[in-house]
Structures are given as structure tokens and as C-alpha cells.
């Protein structure tokens, strides 16, 4: 396959690296996208790579891949692979993504883009060079593709809430609130880069910037680790697992609280924690503008709340919009109005948009440059926390 041609004979051969939670979500998306959307290239799930031969073969079978390999480098030499999908922990993103781009493969890479700004810069530079040859890269901030979030973006873009004054963005989970929850890789700084901050805080940073169309110009914040030692896992499931013998250190933050200033002059407040008992996967975004407000919670993900300050005072109030009309983004390809979408659909929409962009030779969004911008915010929050909450400016060159 030549680099100018993203697919052969109307197909896009995909090779995926990693097959755990994110790998399963991405596999579902590659399988499902061509069944519900009319795509200019048909994704072919050629090969999945992982270190354990038996486990990766079983995953290939379960998730619908044609073959498996224990070396991700095999993907780079295969002519029937046009895109490499990176679903590994953050410590391997840079190496795999850069090698794939250099080999002429398009890349989809899980978030956060990398474990450090240095790595993210190298990835963004590799993506720029590759783009000159028609080889394209995208980072997977999937929540952008929730229809209610797309509608929120449109309302802000159309000026329906006026100038953005406040952003309140929270990502709340509780899978680590139990101190006996085992030591998953997401608690190891060398593998994950950071804790709640990078794993889930990255999502709300991206959402805040995406929905407002603005960028953070500076931040300050606090990080905290509540449980410093956890049982080593006997087995790991999607996020939790079963505690085994012995304990090991938690080397990342358990929670992050930070605030920032937006390029349009608004103020933003962020919280990311995996210690919010009862909040399983709650992503809350509230934006107050000069002419209205919008509010979203992923735990009710098919709904967007919209307040229009121009409404008659007698009847003014938040409008509960069920974002399932065929006129809403993506929804017309799924179920009749009111039947609703779930977590997995945003991954499918990600694949759909990526394939459309590849076929058109267009840069997909979010790009590696967007991923780098989020990485700079993560880094600034860490630096601020290390300096007892000092303000950190985020000028483009920092
Ligand atoms: C774990 O907190 C996690 O799986 C994140 O890594 C994902 O990005 C998010 O979609 C769900 O939660």
C-alpha cells in the first residue's frame, strides 16, 4: 500500500496494539462502524499485537481480528495494514506511534497522547512530517463524539450562550475509592505518566477546550494521593480486579483539582478523581456564557441541558434536550429517537470520522498537536502542584 493511498481497493487494513479495555472498545468500533455508517473505505481488522502469544490469540478470536502477533513491529512491515491503532499504556505510545508514522502507516493513538511533553512533542513533530506525505494521525479523545457534546459545541459556536464566562468540568469515578482495590498499571507513574490527572483529567481538559473553542492560557492546581500502598493484583479486570499477595506503591496522583483561565477571558474549574464513591463515570461539564448556559453529565449522556437567558422570565429554565433526533450528529445512523446511545458509540463515531478524513486526505481532529496541547496543560498542573499551587502560564512555547 502506498502512503498516498490510505486503503487498497476501498479497504483500510487496521493493525491494533493492545487488547485490554481500550483495545476491546476500539475493536468494537472497527467492527461496528461499517455496519451502521456508509464509509468510503471498509475497515479490515487484520492483526492485533500483544506480548503474550496465547492471550493475544484468544483476544483476536474474541474481538474479531483476523490474526495476532507478539511483535507490534510486524504491523509496520505488513502491506495489508494501512493504519496502526495504539491501545497500550502511555509509556509505549511515542515509540509505537512514531515508528508507525515513519513506516507510512496512519495512526490512531489512545489518550493521553504520551507520558510527558517531550514525548508528545516528538509525536506531534513526527505527525507533521508524516502529514507532508499524506500519512495522518489522530489522538483518541472519544467523548468529543458524544452527540450531546457535539450539540454543546455547536450551540457555543453559534453564539447561543454568548461569551464564555465559566467552565466547570469534572471527571468523577470511584474504582479506587476502596483502599483494597489492587495496584493496576494506571497507578504506576512509569507506565501511566500520571494518575487521575492524565487518565481522566485529560478528557475534561480536551472537552473544555473543544466545546468552548478556546484554549487554556494558564493553570494552577493541587494533586493528592490518598492511598500510597495497595495490594498487588491476583488478577486484573477492566479497571479493578482481585487483590493478591503483598503490596506495592502507588506512584501517581489519586485526585487532581485545578483552575485555569481561558483564551476568551473566562474562568475554568476542573476536578478529576477516582475516589468519588457513587460516581462511576460521571463527566460533568457546565458552561455559563453571557447569554445562557449548557450542562452535561455523561451519566445521562443522551441529554444536554440548555438555558437561554433571552427566554421569558416566567417560563425560563434549563431545557432538557434529548439528543437522539436524526438531525443530531451521528444519531440518525442508529436507533429511532429516544432509544439512546452508550459509551461504545463514541468510539464508533471516532472511527467513522477518522475513516472519512483519511479517505478525503484531510487532517483528522483531534490531531497530535491537539494532544500535545492537552499534555502541556497536564504538565503545567503537575508543575503547579509541585510548587504549592503556583500559577503556570501556558504560552504556546512552554
Ligand atoms: C479509566 O479511568 C478509563 O478507562 C479511562 O482510561 C478512559 O479513557 C475512560 O474513557 C474511562 O475510564
Automatic annotation (TrEMBL):
It comes from Xylanimonas cellulosilytica (strain DSM 15894 / JCM 12276 / CECT 5975 / KCTC 9989 / LMG 20990 / NBRC 107835 / XIL07). Keywords: NAD, Oxidoreductase. Gene3D superfamilies: Dihydrodipicolinate Reductase, domain 2, NAD(P)-binding Rossmann-like Domain. Residues 150-294 form the GFO/IDH/MocA-like oxidoreductase domain. InterPro entries: Gfo/Idh/MocA-like_OxRdtase_N (IPR000683), Gfo/Idh/MocA_oxidrdct_glycsds (IPR050463), GFO_IDH_MocA-like_dom (IPR055170), NAD(P)-bd_dom_sf (IPR036291). It comes from the Bacteria. This is Oxidoreductase domain protein. Residues 13-140 form the Gfo/Idh/MocA-like oxidoreductase N-terminal domain. One of its GO terms (molecular function) is oxidoreductase activity. Pfam families: GFO_IDH_MocA (PF01408), GFO_IDH_MocA_C3 (PF22725).
Amino acid at each position: 500500500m502506498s502512503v498516498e493511498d490510505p486503503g487498497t481497493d476501498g479497504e483500510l487494513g487496521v493493525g491494533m496494539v493492545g487488547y485490554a479495555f481500550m483495545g476491546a472498545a476500539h475493536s468494537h468500533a472497527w467492527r461496528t462502524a461499517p455496519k451502521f455508517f456508509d464509509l468510503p473505505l471498509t475497515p479490515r481488522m487484520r492483526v492485533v499485537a500483544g506480548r503474550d502469544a496465547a492471550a493475544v490469540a484468544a483476544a483476536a478470536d474474541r474481538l474479531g481480528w483476523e490474526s495476532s502477533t507478539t511483535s507490534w513491529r510486524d504491523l509496520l512491515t505488513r502491506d495489508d495494514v494501512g493504519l496502526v491503532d495504539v491501545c497500550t499504556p502511555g509509556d509505549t505510545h511515542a515509540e509505537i506511534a512514531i515508528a508507525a508514522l515513519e513506516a507510512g502507516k496512519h495512526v490512531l493513538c489512545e489518550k493521553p497522547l504520551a507520558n510527558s511533553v517531550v514525548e508528545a512533542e516528538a509525536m506531534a513533530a513526527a505527525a507533521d512530517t508524516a502529514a507532508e506525505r499524506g500519512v495522518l494521525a489522530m489522538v483518541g479523545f472519544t467523548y468529543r463524539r458524544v452527540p450531546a457534546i457535539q450539540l454543546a459545541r455547536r450551540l457555543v459556536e453559534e453564539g447561543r450562550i454568548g461569551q464564555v464566562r465559566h467552565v466547570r468540568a469534572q471527571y468523577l469515578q470511584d474504582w479506587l475509592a476502596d483502599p483494597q482495590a489492587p495496584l493496576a498499571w494506571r497507578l504506576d507513574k512509569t507506565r501511566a505518566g500520571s494518575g487521575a490527572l492524565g487518565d481522566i483529567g485529560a478528557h475534561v481538559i480536551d472537552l473544555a477546550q473543544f466545546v468552548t473553542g478556546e484554549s487554556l492560557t494558564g493553570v494552577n492546581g493541587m494533586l493528592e494521593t490518598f492511598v500510597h500502598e495497595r495490594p498487588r493484583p491476583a488478577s486484573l479486570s477492566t479497571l479493578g480486579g482481585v487483590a493478591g499477595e503483598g503490596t506495592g506503591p502507588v506512584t501517581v496522583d489519586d485526585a487532581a483539582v485545578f483552575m485555569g483561565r481561558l483564551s476568551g477571558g473566562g474562568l475554568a474549574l476542573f476536578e478529576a478523581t477516582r475516589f468519588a464513591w457513587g460516581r462511576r463515570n460521571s463527566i460533568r461539564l457546565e458552561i455559563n456564557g453571557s447569554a445562557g448556559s449548557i450542562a452535561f453529565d455523561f451519566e445521562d449522556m443522551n441529554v444536554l441541558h440548555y438555558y437561554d437567558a433571552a427566554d421569558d422570565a416566567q417560563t425560563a429554565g434549563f431545557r432538557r434536550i434529548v439528543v437522539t433526533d436524526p438531525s443530531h450528529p451521528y444519531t440518525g445512523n442508529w436507533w429511532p429517537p429516544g432509544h439512546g446511545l452508550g459509551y461504545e458509540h463514541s468510539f464508533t463515531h471516532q472511527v467513522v470520522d477518522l475513516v472519512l478524513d483519511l479517505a478525503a486526505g484531510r487532517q483528522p481532529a483531534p490531531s497530535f498537536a491537539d494532544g500535545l496541547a492537552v499534555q502541556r496543560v497536564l504538565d503545567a498542573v503537575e508543575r503547579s502542584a509541585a510548587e504549592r499551587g503556583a500559577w503556570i502560564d501556558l504560552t504556546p512555547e512552554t
